[in-house]
């Protein structure tokens, strides 16, 4: 990563100053949560529409949604002027060494495709403690000290293995209804892991959903921020979700993740704080909308891209 000069760090923020932020979108913004689901738009339509919206970068989304053959995917993205910023994996490393082999089999397939597409990041999402579709409670919502040790040590191992074998950097994604969610749990996770091996994918929507302040996190743990997901929550719906203890999946169906700039947190201060870090960062738009009508995502994506241009990216 290239550092900015002190003078550029201290200069007032203007639209042209957010030069280190590379904006993209993801299948999530088209209501895609699963490799195959009849309520999701076909992958060709996603690629057509994300390019039409003015984005250059995309994530792979759930493995198997986009073609897993690198040659096919490279052809399909290139002819639309798209490039891949990251792949995404799901892990349950707090369960300990017994899950390592199964986890690695999942990670290695996705890392292979991610590397082949020229990306350099692997977004790591912890497993949910309750099912994101049904809301069924799968395990306790808090970890024991032993589970925390498993989580931190095996995440470090994952970071090392992914870097050594594939040249990728893992960025761990705090997520609602997982054990890395609130400010307390995010900071505990960061304090317990090696900064050389583990970086953070800060999702502004999930962090706000769980009560966190994205700007504060960037300013406090800036050296650990390796990637951004841009997302907002609707404060009114969030208050209802919290009051009722609604699981994340049904909360999304209620519209808790909303179109910018109508929700929180404000994205321009987040982008400005990220720019002040002096490193290049991806900022990938993810507006959870599963399930959604197939014609809904494109106009939202166009408006969101226009809004982000007004912010200077």
TrEMBL record:
Keyword Membrane among record annotations: no
Keywords: Lyase
Domain Xylose isomerase-like TIM barrel: 47-311
Pfam families: AP_endonuc_2
Annotated region described as Disordered, given as residue ranges: 1-20
UniProt GO molecular function: myo-inosose-2 dehydratase activity
E.C. number(s) listed in UniProt: 4.2.1.44
Stored Gene3D superfamilies: Divalent-metal-dependent TIM barrel enzymes (3.20.20.150)
Top-level taxon of origin: Bacteria
Keyword Electron transport: no
Biased composition (Low complexity): 1-19
Protein name: 2-keto-myo-inositol dehydratase
């Amino acid at each position: 990563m290239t550092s900015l000069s002190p003078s550029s760090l201290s200069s007032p923020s203007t639209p042209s100053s957010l030069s280190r932020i590379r904006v993209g979108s993801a299948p999530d913004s088209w209501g895609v949560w699963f490799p195959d689901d009849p309520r999701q738009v076909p992958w060709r339509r996603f690629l057509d529409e994300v390019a039409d919206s003015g984005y250059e970068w995309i994530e792979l989304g759930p493995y198997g949604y986009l073609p897993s053959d690198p040659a096919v995917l490279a052809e399909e993205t290139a002819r639309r002027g798209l490039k891949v910023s990251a792949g995404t994996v799901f892990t349950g490393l707090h369960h300990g060494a017994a899950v390592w082999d199964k986890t690695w089999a999942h990670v290695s397939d996705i890392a292979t495709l991610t590397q082949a597409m020229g990306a350099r990041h692997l977004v790591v999402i912890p497993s949910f403690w309750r099912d994101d579709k049904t809301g069924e409670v799968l395990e306790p919502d808090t970890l024991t000290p032993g589970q925390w040790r498993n989580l931190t040590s095996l995440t470090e191992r994952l970071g090392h293995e992914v870097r050594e074998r594939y040249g990728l950097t893992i960025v761990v994604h705090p997520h609602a209804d997982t054990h890395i969610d609130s400010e307390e749990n995010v900071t505990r996770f960061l304090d317990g892991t090696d900064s050389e091996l583990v970086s953070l994918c800060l999702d502004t929507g999930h962090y706000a959903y769980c009560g966190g302040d994205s700007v504060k996190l960037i300013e406090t743990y800036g050296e650990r921020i390796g990637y951004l997901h841009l997302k907002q929550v609707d404060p009114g719906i969030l208050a209802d979700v919290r009051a009722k203890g609604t699981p994340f999946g049904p909360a999304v169906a209620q519209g808790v993740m909303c179109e910018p700039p109508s929700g929180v947190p404000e994205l321009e201060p987040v982008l400005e704080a990220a720019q002040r870090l002096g490193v290049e960062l991806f900022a990938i738009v993810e507006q959870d909308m599963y399930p959604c009508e197939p014609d809904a995502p494109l106009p939202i994506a166009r408006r969101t891209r226009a809004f982000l241009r007004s912010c200077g990216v």
